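Researcher: Sequence recovery benchmark, item below. Answer with residues only.
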């Protein structure tokens, strides 16, 4: 049984804490947060015996086998490296790092430690994603050569550290885009990147002037503080000739929040009564099936027996 400590007890940590508490192969050994009162309160809620305020105390504890890192983006790489160096296994929230150099340093730490590190790209493990991956691996869909991933919130800059580039590293691209990029890349067979062309814009800000729509806000939300982009797009070209189009936004000018996750056109249009809450929990509809959406369509453009064809799947 793995003895695990969750480091950083913000909103996303609830998913980690609950999962470990319900997993018979894991023991929720402790919780760590710089806010001791918050750590003690959550520890009492889940009957956790050990509370830490310094991650280094966690890393030095020989009884700890693994950690979940749920802190600000800026700290992910350094905490992961320190944990690996102490012989701990690591589950780190996305994004892994703020720069390529940091990511390479983490990879080196993994190689030197022999421990396991995994980034929280949870969208890969949804039932529907695994079914689709099986079809692809068995060659039933031919060659996937084009994909498009889009997540355009009507409004939903959470504020707090999410809107602080120094701590987050960016806005919707590093927060939301990493998931849909990884999902497409994974299903396309993880081809090697040849080139990337992209743009970021901060023309709309966080649209804090809008008062009639609700969305998730951090505890320290400040409508006047925002240094991240509100829109990002990219064209990723792979060495095998395939390509991936991406666009993401925190506050797109449209009537409702829209998911478009496709090879080449799969539309996901949620019933958006719960706004951000549904967005956070539902991820991409064809990857998990726990939330109601009005329409789900997946169209793949594939190359099969020297000709192109469209395959429409409904869920």
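Model:
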């Amino acid at each position: 049984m793995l003895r695990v400590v969750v480091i950083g007890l913000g909103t996303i940590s609830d998913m980690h804490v609950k999962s470990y508490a319900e997993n018979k192969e894991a023991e929720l050994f402790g919780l760590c947060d710089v806010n001791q009162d918050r750590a003690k309160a959550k520890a009492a809620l889940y009957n956790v015996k050990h509370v830490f305020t310094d991650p280094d105390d966690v890393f030095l504890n020989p009884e700890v086998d693994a950690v979940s890192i749920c802190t600000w983006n800026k700290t992910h790489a350094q905490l992961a490296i320190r944990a690996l160096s102490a012989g701990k296994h690591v589950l780190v929230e996305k994004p892994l790092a703020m720069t390529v150099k940091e990511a390479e340093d983490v990879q080196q730490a993994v190689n030197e430690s022999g421990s396991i590190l995994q980034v929280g790209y949870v969208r890969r493990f949804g039932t529907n994603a695994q079914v689709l991956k099986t079809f692809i691996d068995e060659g039933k869909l031919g060659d996937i050569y084009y994909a498009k991933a889009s997540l355009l919130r009507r409004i939903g800059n959470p504020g707090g550290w999410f809107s602080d580039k120094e701590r987050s590293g960016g806005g919707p691209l590093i927060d939301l885009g990493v998931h849909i990029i990884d999902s497409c890349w994974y299903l396309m067979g993880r081809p090697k990147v040849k080139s990337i062309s992209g743009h970021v814009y901060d023309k709309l800000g966080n649209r804090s002037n809008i008062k009639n729509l609700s969305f998730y806000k951090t505890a320290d939300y400040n409508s006047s503080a925002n240094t991240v982009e509100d829109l990002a797009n990219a064209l990723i070209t792979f060495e095998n000739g395939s390509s991936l189009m991406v666009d993401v936004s925190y506050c797109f000018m449209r009537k409702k929040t829209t998911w478009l996750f496709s090879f080449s056109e799969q539309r996901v249009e949620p019933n958006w009564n719960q706004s951000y809450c549904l967005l956070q929990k539902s991820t991409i509809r064809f990857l998990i099936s726990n939330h109601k959406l009005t329409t789900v369509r997946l169209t793949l453009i594939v190359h099969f027996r020297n000709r192109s064809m469209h395959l429409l799947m409904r869920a």
